[in-house]
């Protein structure tokens, strides 16, 4: 009887060990294929929408599929290049576990896991991730896609910074569109609505759009809307009257975008100089300096011919990483809005935690380049290090 019990015990141990032995055999041996996680960096701070990017070593490793896990949840399954996955990590600088599992053609598995950093309660007052909007074109003027964190070199006040995450053109956009509906726009309103609808149609359903109308006051007619029909209907409620509160709407639009992380942009259309704002041009400029949203200014009529206004809008937009588009004729609005949506759609956003974490209301200069490539890079020129509100 004792002999049979011993034999049964040995069989049970062998049975329990078999699945583990089989699983172990499926893991690629040391020195075989490997996974390199390009973005985010291990031990970095991340928040908001990010792109998880990896490469296989060697690059031609035959795979059945790649599974991307974030905090234990499957977020992407890929079977071919590019090996990148978009994921929203949330608004706070919490720790996250990123795990990539590659199922190889030969039945083996390759696994790579990293952990990002957590900002505890004390750190959250000081740790502030800076976002930098970037556009990259080749020498022919075409947008360059597929760039990763290690392709960029970023400096703040001429000191190298570590890029912790990159959001590329696949990540969703958050756009605030502010349309001038002052009395001077009476004749142009039908064309403005048509051009605005084309702009909204060119955005994807996962892109969120807030539509503001402004004259003496500012009206929110759509708030972070993703439904195309609802976006279009919002424009029907716009009617022209009153003056122009241009500076106020810039500050309001930036305020609405200030709580979002990732790819974003403020698009402001106006046909004239400010007449009705409570704030000043200096107020709007300071808000732009402190914001991480690029501004695109579309000028029509006086907004395209008044030199002082053109210079002001161009300076504000370029400082933020956006630009000003001027058109003298209302029929050219379609092309102007098309240029803007094209740039927003190809925007990269680089995130980094500055080595200088003192928030002392000083201006910090930012430079971005791509070494070894004949590319033209346009980026946010810097930021105002305002204290972070707890």
Structure description:
With 390 residues, this protein is α+β, with helices and mostly antiparallel strands. The chain folds into 3 domains: 34-115, Immunoglobulins (Immunoglobulin-like); 123-169 and 348-384, Immunoglobulin-like; 173-345, Rossmann fold. It has helices spanning 2-26, 189-202, 228-236, 246-257, 281-290, 302-305, 307-320, 333-345, and strands at residues 34-39, 49-57, 63-70, 73-78, 84-88, 97-104, 109-115, 130-137, 153-156, 159-161, 163-167, 173-180, 208-214, 218-225, 263-270, 295-300, 323-327, 348-352, 363-369, 376-379, 382-384. The strands form 5 sheets. The protein has a 6-stranded mixed beta sheet with strand order 14-13-12-15-16-17, sandwiched between helices. Helix 2 runs antiparallel to helix 3 (228-236) and helix 2 (189-202) packs parallel to helix 8 (333-345). The radius of gyration is 26 Å and the shape is globular.
Topology record:
Elements: H1 2-26, E1 34-39, E2 49-57, E3 63-70, E4 73-78, E5 84-88, E6 97-104, E7 109-115, E8 130-137, E9 153-156, E10 159-161, E11 163-167, E12 173-180, H2 189-202, E13 208-214, E14 218-225, H3 228-236, H4 246-257, E15 263-270, H5 281-290, E16 295-300, H6 302-305, H7 307-320, E17 323-327, H8 333-345, E18 348-352, E19 363-369, E20 376-379, E21 382-384
Parallel strand pairs: 12-13, 12-15, 15-16, 16-17
Antiparallel strand pairs: 1-2, 2-5, 3-4, 3-6, 6-7, 8-18, 8-20, 9-10, 9-19, 11-18, 13-14, 19-21
Helix pairs in contact: 2-3, 2-8, 4-5
């Amino acid at each position: 009887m004792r002999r049979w019990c011993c034999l049964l015990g040995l069989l049970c141990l062998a049975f329990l060990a078999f699945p583990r032995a089989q699983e172990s055999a499926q893991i690629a041996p040391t020195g075989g294929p490997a996974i390199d996680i390009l973005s985010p960096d291990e031990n970095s701070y991340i928040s908001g929408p990010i792109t998880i990017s990896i490469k296989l070593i060697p690059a031609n490793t035959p795979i059945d599929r790649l599974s991307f896990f974030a905090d234990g949840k499957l977020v992407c399954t890929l079977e071919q290049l590019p090996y990148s996955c978009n994921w929203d990590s949330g608004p706070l600088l919490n720790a996250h576990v990123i795990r990539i599992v590659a199922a190889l053609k030969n039945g083996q598995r390759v696994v790579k896991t990293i952990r990002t950093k957590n900002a505890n309660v004390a750190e959250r007052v000081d740790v502030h991730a800076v976002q930098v909007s970037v556009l990259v074109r080749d020498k022919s003027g075409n947008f360059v896609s597929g760039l990763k964190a290690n392709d960029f070199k970023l400096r703040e006040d001429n000191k190298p910074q570590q890029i912790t995450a990159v959001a590329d053109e696949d990540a969703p956009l958050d756009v605030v569109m502010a349309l001038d509906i002052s009395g001077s726009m009476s004749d142009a309103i039908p064309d403005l609505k048509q051009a605005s609808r084309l702009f909204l149609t060119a955005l994807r359903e996962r892109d969120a759009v807030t539509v503001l109308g402004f004259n003496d006051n500012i009206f929110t007619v759509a708030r972070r809307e993703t439904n195309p029909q609802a976006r279009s209907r919002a424009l029907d409620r716009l009617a022209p009257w009153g003056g122009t509160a241009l500076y106020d709407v810039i500050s309001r639009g930036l305020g609405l975008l200030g709580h979002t992380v990732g790819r974003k942009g403020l698009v402001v259309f106006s046909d004239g100089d400010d007449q009705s704002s409570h704030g000043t041009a200096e107020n709007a400029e300071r808000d732009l300096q402190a914001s991480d949203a690029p501004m695109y200014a579309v000028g029509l009529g006086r907004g395209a011919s008044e030199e002082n206004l053109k210079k002001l809008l161009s300076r504000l937009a370029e400082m933020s990483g956006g630009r000003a588009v001027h058109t003298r004729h209302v029929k050219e609005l379609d092309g102007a809005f098309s240029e803007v949506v094209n740039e927003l759609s190809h925007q990269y956003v680089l995130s980094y935690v500055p080595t200088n974490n003192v928030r002392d209301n000083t201006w910090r200069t930012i430079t971005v380049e791509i070494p070894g490539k004949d590319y033209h890079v346009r980026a946010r020129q810097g930021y105002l290090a305002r204290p972070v509100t707890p």
